[in-house]
Amino acid sequence: MSERSARHYHEEHVITFSGGTLDRADQLRVNPDRLATAWADPRARCLLLHGLDPLPPEAGKLATMPVPPEAVLADHALLGLREDGAPLFVSLIVEKVDEPPSFPPRVWQVVAELSFDEAALYGGARSLIDWHDRHQHCARCGARTHVVKAGWARQGGTRSGGHFP
Length: 165
What we know:
Number of strands: 8
Strand content: 15-25%
Order of helices and strands: HHHEEEEEEHHEE
């Protein structure tokens, strides 16, 4: 395929949930002081979801809100830093829904209104929250796990080497 044909194919066939540009900021996840600074940043935002579903977007963007004063960092995952350096978090505590872990039709309707970058952000956030919900116990020793690395890992009992999404 020529370079021109490849470019045309890419423009015509975009893969949903791919191509996100959010800085995942792994350097903050492993440093408690830097993570606390990001949490306290006045620009920090929390992604708003209804269960695992996105709220209707405004101008192709996912709904967010400032970090609520009563929110607890341990209940949130750091999704990363926006282009302007603003930290973006998502709550790991979601209301339980009786639907199977799939994408209901209303999700596809909302995702169609998102920019490609925002769709990738949503896909990552949703997957991370769902993973945490399904990995409450260590697969190796059965011990209850807890969130570590700013929501990007879980730690179990003494025999566990850690669990990652």
